């Protein structure tokens, strides 16, 4: 796949994955089993889709895999009204009658990294369809999976382009600080300082900004810019905030892409993702569901280890070199990270709703220190990344 198209392709996959077509018979038999729920769960190496019926599922066939498509048939089962619509396929469900026998056919389109599929029973009422990643031997070289493949093609993986994303901008002001500052201004200011320091510290590395003035850039466009620039790192800069201010919560946290695991992460992701309300209705993220987000994170599996490494360096250096407290590395479902074809993090520098955090991060000195500690974190990451390539 042409690298420049990767961001776009991710978007297409997301659109198609929602296109689960259900073919069901109109059964006159009132005791036939009904699928009452479908649940999608991601594990480290796989994605599971659990089909649950209201009573025993009589039989199912081995899933058929054809390219990026899976056809899975459950026999003696019909689909309860709209249960799929509420989970896997919010907008694209189609129910077609088959007059001969009773069966359900699920058609799913999966991202290219998932190319093995099995089905198994888990008790009488549950059948689990599991998608596994492609066999490692046929996989493309990935930084976290195949250091030997990386060594063969150093130029492809060298840290030659770093993409800095200043959160929000233009009509999207982001959070408003307890001191009246806008998040969009703080993030741009830190991003520009970070760019200048990076250019000095790593003169052979190109620094790309998703915006360098006060303009609105759609969330999907930000990773599109990063992918088109062949970025090797994507760093989205933000400021945290609580709904009430002043608020005692303070400190910095770094996020990698995963659907939110706790209430705080989900709340934060919801606030940051709210930027899509400023986007045109055709924005690919405008109606993204939690399940679609889970699927989107599958495409990033190969970058997770490197993203985590960068995230932990950022937290470590900021803790050491600024007065901002370390709240650790977390996971949440940030739309802005969804399309990135490179290791990526979202960094919440400080809480604008906290009086002392806000004063620090609004000041030129605070922003300079923050940018400087980020450069040191990126340099440490670059060193460990290089040693991985040269091992
Ligand atoms: Zn933000």
Coarse structural class: alpha/beta
Beta-strand portion reads 25-35%
User: What spatial form do the alpha-carbon principal axes imply?
Assistant: elongated
* Percent in helix: 25-40%
What is the count of β-strands? Answer: 17
Give me the secondary-structure topology:
Blueprint (H helix, E strand, L loop, with lengths): L5 H12 L3 E3 L9 E10 L3 E8 L5 E2 L3 E3 L2 E7 L1 E3 L15 E2 L6 E7 L4 E8 L4 E8 L13 H6 L1 H4 L3 E6 L16 H19 L4 E4 L9 H10 L4 E8 L11 E6 L5 H11 L16 H9 L5 H18 L4 E7 L11 E8 L3 H8 L1 H27 L1
Parallel strand pairs: 1-8, 2-7, 12-13, 12-14, 14-17, 15-16
Antiparallel strand pairs: 1-9, 2-3, 3-11, 4-6, 5-6, 6-9, 10-11, 15-17
This protein binds zinc ion (ZN).
Zinc ion binds next to loops.
């Amino acid at each position: 796949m042409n690298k420049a198209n990767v961001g776009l392709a991710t978007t297409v996959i997301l659109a198609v994955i929602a296109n689960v077509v259900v073919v069901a018979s109109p059964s006159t038999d009132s005791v036939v089993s009904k699928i009452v729920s479908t649940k999608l769960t991601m594990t480290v190496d796989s994605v599971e889709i659990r089909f649950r019926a209201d009573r025993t599922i009589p039989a199912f066939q081995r899933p058929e895999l054809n390219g990026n498509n899976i056809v899975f048939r459950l026999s003696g089962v019909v689909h309860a009204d709209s249960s799929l619509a509420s989970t896997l396929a919010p907008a694209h469900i189609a129910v077609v009658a088959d007059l001969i026998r009773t069966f359900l056919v699920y058609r799913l389109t999966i991202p290219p990294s998932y190319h093995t599929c099995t089905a198994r029973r888990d008790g009488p009422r549950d059948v689990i369809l599991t998608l596994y990643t492609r066999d490692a031997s046929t996989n493309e070289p990935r930084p976290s999976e195949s250091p030997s493949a990386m060594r063969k093609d150093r130029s492809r993986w060298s840290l030659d382009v770093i993409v800095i994303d200043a959160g929000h901008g233009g009509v999207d002001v982001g959070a408003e600080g307890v001191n009246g500052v806008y998040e969009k201004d703080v993030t741009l200011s830190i991003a520009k300082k970070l760019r200048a320091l990076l250019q000095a510290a790593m003169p052979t590395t190109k620094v790309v900004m998703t915006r360098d003035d006060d303009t609105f850039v759609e969330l999907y466009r930000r990773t599109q810019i990063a992918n088109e620039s062949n970025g090797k790192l994507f760093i989205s800069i933000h400021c945290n905030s609580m709904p009430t201010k002043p608020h005692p919560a303070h400190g910095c946290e770094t996020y990698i892409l995963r659907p939110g695991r706790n209430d705080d992460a989900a709340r934060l992701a919801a606030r940051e993702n709210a930027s899509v309300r400023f986007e045109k209705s055709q924005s690919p993220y405008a109606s993204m569901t939690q399940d679609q987000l889970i699927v989107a994170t599958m495409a990033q599996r190969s970058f997770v280890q490197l993203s985590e490494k960068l995230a932990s360096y950022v937290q470590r250096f900021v803790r050491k070199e600024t007065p901002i407290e370390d709240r650790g590395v977390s996971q949440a479902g940030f739309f802005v990270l969804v399309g990135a074809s490179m290791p990526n993090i979202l960094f919440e520098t400080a809480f604008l709703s906290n009086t002392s955090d806000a004063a620090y991060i609004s000041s030129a000195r605070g922003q300079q220190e923050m940018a400087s500690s980020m450069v040191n974190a990126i340099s440490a990451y670059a060193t460990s990344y290089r040693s991985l390539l040269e091992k």
